[in-house]
Design a protein that fits this description.
heterodimer, A: alpha+beta, Alpha-Beta Plaits, two-stranded antiparallel sheet, 4 strands, B: alpha+beta, 6-stranded mixed β-sheet, 10% strand, iron ion binding (chain A)
Chain lengths: 84, 397
Amino acid sequence: MSTARLRVDRGRCIGAGMCALTAPDVFDQDAEEGLVVLLRAEPAETRLTAARMAAGMCPSGAITLGGPDSGSSALPAPPADGCQ
Amino acid sequence: MNESVHTVEAMPTERRPGCPFDPPAELIDAQRHSPISRFTHPGGKPGWLITGYDLVRSVLADPRFSSRRELMSVVDFELPPAPPGEFLLMDDPQHSRYRKPLVGRFTVRRMRMLTERIEQITADRLDAMEQAGPSADLVTAFAKPIPTMVICEILGVPYGDRAHFQEQIDTFMGGEASDEEVMAAYTATQGYLARLVATKRAHPTDDVLSELTGSDLTDEELKGISLLLLAAGFDTTANMLSLGTFALLQHPEQLAALRAEPALIDGAVEELLRYLSVAKTFNRTALEDVEVGGQTIEASTTVVLSLNTANRDPARFTAPGTLDIRRPHEGHLAFSHGIHQCLGQQLARTEMRVAFRALIERFPTLRLAVPADEVRLRPESADIYGVKSLPVTWDAA
């Protein structure tokens, strides 16, 4: 199967920690500066949803997901409409 | 194309009676019309109000929109630039000069390491409540002291100074004091922090402020940073804890589910953040003409971003008006988005997880001590929404 490849840009990272919170086995924050550390550039299939979620939630756009089946790093599509 | 644009003349001053958790009806109504509305700022200047999730999120992430206070075109006089260190009201590179040295102190892992200490602080408050009970004002007995103690310990504010400090911040965050009172409280706090910074520089202790005195930041800048961290560090979390408890008590089936299954706490905290969105609005000013949602925001125009309405957007969230602690995490904007997204969000999450769990475990019969419509709420004029007091009671053991 095709693999998705993650890239992180520590220059853009603001250290919000959403990635380390959402996909802790894929992303971490370094102890000193608190900026993103990529633990697995090609996460296992089972971790892809969490990794994609983390990329979509990143407030500063520091995480990108490339690769054949990656689509974009946008959040997963919201569920169908409901009522307020 | 602009003729049919919905217009909101002013920010609503009240919520619908009986709906303390919902954004004001006028804002929900504006969102129903379209995600962006024309808006008139209090000073009479024309602006825009953005209520839709996608547009709020995109503006927050867009460097063509500025956070600089001196650029805000909202009143009929010029605002001064933010004081040194108050980086919430700055753009890069000034913003990141201040934020960068702090980031490593608020990581997911660091905040997890604090869990035990927060549990201890929480248990102490619950012990005190139990001894004085079987009733309490949850705001003063629980919701305020926990985040106050935590942020003061992180920053290095001596124990004896905390009560006074909390009082001052209450005055300038409460939305009800006069301009003179707000100014006096602000000045007093600044004076206190100036002395504290000088003390830490002379006699460093084991805390963030002492660590920062080792950097190239000036005393003036450290004072501003401290003020921001203290104000942001407890007023928001305190209001989430008290309003969140009120919301859980008003949704007994959700509270029962959380009691029965403590592992739901992480999702419950995210859902309470979304549902309550206590940090309601942020302003941004266009640095150039920018097209947003089919409208042109002209350069120098300030837009109001309604986070609480965005977090209730039916185009983003299923049944957005329903509190559902099992809702999948769908990326709420309660901590904002973009480069200013909350620095202390992992601390806030840890505090809420610990405090809500411990509270409902300790008092299985916790309930309101007054009818729900008598709970006094913060006015819409306050930047951070919440309850002023939350009288609760429980069956003594």
